[in-house]
Write a structure and sequence with these properties.
572 residues, mainly alpha, 24 helices, 65% helix, 0% strand
Length: 572
Amino acid sequence: MADEAAPVTAPPHVYAEKTSGGNNAYHNFHNDFVHIQDPNERRRLALAEIDKAPFGWYHVRACVVAGIGFFTDSYDIFAVSLLNTMLGIVYYPGKGQLPTSSDNAIKLSTSAGTVIGQLAFGFLADHVGRKRMYGLELIIIIFATLGQALSSGSPSVNIIGVIIFWRVLLGVGIGGDYPLSSIITSEFATTKWRGAMMGAVFAMQGIGQLVCAFVMLFVTLGFREALSASPSVKQCDGYCAVAVDKMWRTLIGFGAVPACIALYYRLTIPETPRYTFDIGRDVEKAADDVKAYMSGKHEGNPDDITRIQAREAAKTQMNIPKASWSDFRRHYAKPKNGLLLFGTAGSWFVLDVAFYGLSLNNALILNVIGYSAANVSNTYEYMYNTAIGNLIIVLAGAVPGYWVSVATLDTLGRKTIQMGGFIILTILFVIMGFAYYHMSSNGLLAIYVLAQFFFNFGPNMTTFIVPGEVFPTRYRSTSHGISAASGKIGSIIGQGAISILRTRGGTRDNPNPWMDHVLEIYALFMLLGIFTTLFIPETKRKTLEELSGEDQPAPLPVASGSSHGGKTAESL
């Protein structure tokens, strides 16, 4: 009877604290429900508002703001193939190309920095907040891009070393963009079209590659007179070398322009409601994280007493487990969760071995298969063919692949697209590898373009999306960062250990005799991707709470004499 006479009640008139931020691209849903006292009910209503919202211009604007970052990421990453071509012409006269070690070091430096950025920003976004981290990675990208474009060598400093330094820093910023843009878009997206929204953000990579190819074409046309005076890239000196030096600086520097435009919107987004409810409610770190609950009165200014009351009420009433190292280990010690992380990280790893092993070498691949260097009489024709070849690859393969994925992610499903992509890529690489010396350069280019299409209408798209959906909010960013970093480790292996095998046993007449075997190795990795895909679930048209297991019923009333064990749900 004593228990019945003393029910547990929340402090009266306790309201959540309003969170800062909000603009035309990102609506602050959390503040729409600050008048509701029960934090679980406020959470349910806010998330339902997002999940069931009809698709509109708001979603388009949100995708553009997040997507501009990926536009810049892709532009900077895939410009490296063109960058190295021009650095070889300018700084290695007489040879016209970088030494293989320097070429690989520059390409690998970005991936190395990306691994650091993905892990660091992924962890910090879960522990400090998405809002506090978003925009910082763009500032790093802008700073590193401009630094790279203004780099120069000296008697004591080699230009290659300077470029490597800036590209490592650039990679840190690019790496941070992966988990942040994915999970922020995921947590703001409507359930029905979440795949299309996340896909549209990632598809800006294709637009970045396209613009990079166009900028390369335009600067080549702009310096046509100077380039035409040189009979070959090995003899590009004087006026020609100055022109190529200006070309690579223009190409790289242009990548900072869209990032500057998007910076304001990223710095002013609100905290995502899922972070505010599930992680920001942690009263012990409220000062360091986003403040989750309002401490004051309704339609008035808060005071310290009500602030304490609100935090204590949230501490006892919220159902979602709190993040901690012990909870993280316990969560991923469960076979279901551990295998899920293995599926997302493993799929991304095997994909990037081949994807970056080839895509970072587009200019080289065009030269190897005889497209860039075929029937050229001067440096201008060589650079022009390289630019046009990149445009063909991007326009015919990459861009259509990205947008076909966007159109079908929420109908065909992520797992279907990923599985189909790996199967088709396995077949294409087997054909390219075993028929390499039996096909014309145009035939190889056609299959290479097809491979680019099914990379993007396939695992390159889905490996980005699925990790942003299947993990619980408290570990979503960290888990996405781990998955993405696994991919970049794969890209380092693909570029640094496998791609360079093409030169094994090379001669002046045939500098890349092992190119067919490299393609065969990539086919093996695509085959492995079929098996890693089996560990991921289908995520289309399901809420994030359904996918992560956080969709739990409200807690049963707890008597005052009960232990605290009934106040939180069992750790997932």
